[in-house]
Write a structure and sequence with these properties.
With 108 residues, the chain is of the alpha+beta class. It contains four helices and three strands.
Length: 108
């Protein structure tokens, strides 16, 4: 038998209350049958997107929920921080434009 959606949400909120981070704030809300976990950057002056991930009923009702939740949260935190990069070596076009501007400034 599945737990009611509001008790699943409370289960996630209870877990999130165990985590404290100097840069990030955590929250959750119902989204249909899933619980959506929300990760926000605490400083609103920094233009960083909000990260969302879904927890499905099968995950929420799993007997090892606390452990699987922590693993999923940490995986999502990794993804979130990687998504914050504004430039990487893979951004070749941007890097080429930046190098071109630097070269022009050196030759002036």
């Amino acid at each position: 038998m599945q737990a009611p959606a509001n008790s699943r949400l409370q289960r996630v909120l209870d877990q999130l209350a165990l985590y404290e981070h100097p840069l990030l704030a955590f929250d959750a809300q119902l989204s249909g049958e899933t619980v959506e976990v929300i990760i926000r950057f605490k400083d609103p002056s920094v233009p960083v997107h909000t990260y969302y991930f879904q927890l499905h009923p099968r995950d929420l009702d799993h007997p090892q929920f606390e452990w699987t939740f922590q693993r999923q949260l940490f995986d999502c935190l990794h993804d979130y921080f990687v998504e914050m990069f504004t430039r990487t070596p893979q951004s070749r076009k941007e890097n080429a434009e930046i190098a071109s501007v630097r070269e022009r400034h050196r030759s002036e």
